[in-house]
Amino acid sequence: MPAKLSAQIPGGPIEDKWSKHIFDIKLVNPANKRKYDIIVVGTGLAGASAAATLAELGYNIKAFCFQDSPRRAHSIAAQGGINAAKNYQNDGDSVFRLFYDTIKGGDYRSREANVYRLAEVSANIIDQCVAQGVPFAREYGGLLANRSFGGAQVSRTFYARGQTGQQLLLGAYGALNRQIANGKVKMYPRAEMLDLVVIDGHARGIIARNLITGKIESHSAHAVLLATGGYGNVFYLSTNATGSNVTAAWRAHKKGALFANPCFTQIHPTCIPVSGDHQSKLTLMSESLRNDGRVWVPKQKGDKRNPADIPEEDRDYYLERRYPSFGNLVPRDVASRNAKQVCDEGRGVGATGLAVYLDFEDAIKRDGRDKIEAKYGNLFDMYRQITGENPYRIPMRIYPAVHYTMGGLWVDYNLMTTIPGCYALGEANFSDHGANRLGASALMQGLADGYFVIPYAIGDYLATRPYDVVHVDHPEFRKAVQNLKNQIEKLLTINGSSTVDEIHKELGTIMWDYCGMSRTEKGLKIAREKIKEVRHRFWSDVKILGTNDELNMSLEKAGRVADFIELGALMVEDALHRNESCGGHFREEYQTEDGEALRDDESFTYVAAWEYQGEGKPESLNKELLEFENVKLTQRSYK
Ligand SMILES: Cc1cc2nc3c(=O)[nH]c(=O)nc-3n(C[C@H](O)[C@H](O)[C@H](O)COP(=O)(O)OP(=O)(O)OC[C@H]3O[C@@H](n4cnc5c(N)ncnc54)[C@H](O)[C@@H]3O)c2cc1C
User: Fold this and answer.
1) Residues 263 and 279 in one domain
2) Whether 436 contacts 333, CB under 8 Å
3) Which of 97, 109, 204, 332 is catalytic?
4) d(CA 625, CA 635)
5) Could you read off the pLDDT of 119-168 as tens digits, one per residue?
6) Is 16 contained in some domain?
7) Residues lining ligand 1, CB < 6 A?
8) Does 340 reside within a domain?
9) Quick check: is 430 in a domain?
10) How far apart are CA 396 and CA 359, in angstroms?
11) Is 209 known to be catalytic?
12) pLDDT per residue over 214-272, tens digit each?
């Protein structure tokens, strides 16, 4: 492994690595912590938990988000739940089982040591959140309730109805606010980081644009944490909040942070299907619904009868048929591919034929409507409001949609990117989910990173750093500000005829068609050329109204779309070079006889970490070889 990709995995047995590492990590004396400034970009679950915890430890924090309040981070949208190996159900769960399920679920493309640590700290997260007052669902006797999520045969998912992300974020936001009131966190809402400042090889600050006034501001610190979320919106249509973007991570990438596994995208099987050309967003129907909902399509092609008129013998509960062990709770990549397959066979339902049924009739008969409503009421309401149909009576129609990105900035065991002093947390890093994330594991990872990993790991770096404060007049800050002003000026003067959204949509269509649920060498090569055209069109024909000195959402979006175009090109290269199928990366050329993903462990058991080489030049590939000492690589089977 090249030096720049040293993963810093501690030695010793896997179950001892983290506790040994915590002991070995250099400590910053409590009195010295107040001499260090840390910038946290992003105040979703990962960023808010990190900012609050680091401030509680005594560091001085500057926290940034582009929304008007941390409460509006995309994390608030999370519905179904958060995993933890508490074994409250006494159904055989353990830290090792959560670790094993996550490694297997990710199709053996994640780093064992990080995943084990994630499973290990998972139980602490629940305790922390309960102490904050997060209202998790409870059993009659008072213990916290659990439900099941895909890729697991135990019930380990903690939830607050269908609003788990919201409740967890309110907990983290409360902790953050306490530190804002204490003066240990200075909060910068409506501020967008547009560059990372690197001085003498170390991250020393950021450049941010005030989204209300357009003012470009410089901020220095001793370390920078990027907790800026995922980049699913490269596909234009996704279940992500419309503001989610890759800009912070991408600009850090251009300053030297390697970008890992960019093509690993999760397509979620249970989303409300696309209904027309004018949508800017798709809506998730939580995976938790697959605990009780049964997925089916008609057995016969082109069967247009109402679902209620289709008798049992004419229905194909294809997940239950093909995967008797896991049934409707197979992992997302498997469920999505199967939905696509039955629709490609002409058995899809609804007006477009691009949908399958998620049916609660049996569950309602068995448990009663009240019970189903108590578990999923808000999700059913949401579905009814969007589609105008009552899912208590008519099966929901669902179809896969882009949902999560497993790729992200490459980080070592300490969550540090390849730029010393620059860290990536939560969905912004690549670390724990391999080629496919299991449901309810993103919230777990974001909060593990923020509450329990970074507060220790950052000490290892800071303890060796001087307390010197870099002034924002430093030439590197001034250079970054000037470059940014030039870019904004360039965008505003193109004055073409295409809106930013039109170009974004065009990019998204290419990504979905050629680098989406299934991929081929031929298609990816077409995408490569088409993205070049989109890039050219953007820089020669985009039209941005207004000026820099005001609230200008089309200017904001333009910067983000410019980065999405470059990222899209890298995703295509990554998908093209990985001549195997694994998890969400399904290359049609590489599949088993029954259509499952066929890995090539000999050639591809590595993390692909891409290194920026300069404007218009191909990126170079670095490989972190993955070693499996605790889990045996097998063909993933959920049968
Ligand atoms: C609809 C939906 C439902 C989901 N449900 C679940 C679930 O039930 N369980 C589960 O485990 N996972 C779920 N997920 C996934 C999970 O919600 C996300 O992966 C997770 O919330 C990401 O948290 P984060 O803190 O990393 O990023 P985010 O919550 O996306 O926060 C990103 C932060 O970065 C800030 N930011 C970004 N760029 C910049 C910039 N340039 N400058 C300044 N600030 C910036 C934003 O303002 C924001 O504060 C769901 C996802 C979706 C889309």
Assistant:
1) no
2) yes
3) 332
4) 19
5) 999 999 999 999 999 999 999 999 999 998 888 889 999 999 889 999 99
6) no
7) 41-47, 64-67, 73-75, 77-82, 164-165, 192-193, 227-230, 239-240, 244-245, 247-248, 284, 286, 403-404, 426-428, 440-443, 446
8) yes
9) yes
10) 6
11) no
12) 999 999 999 999 999 999 999 999 999 999 999 999 999 999 999 999 999 999 999 99
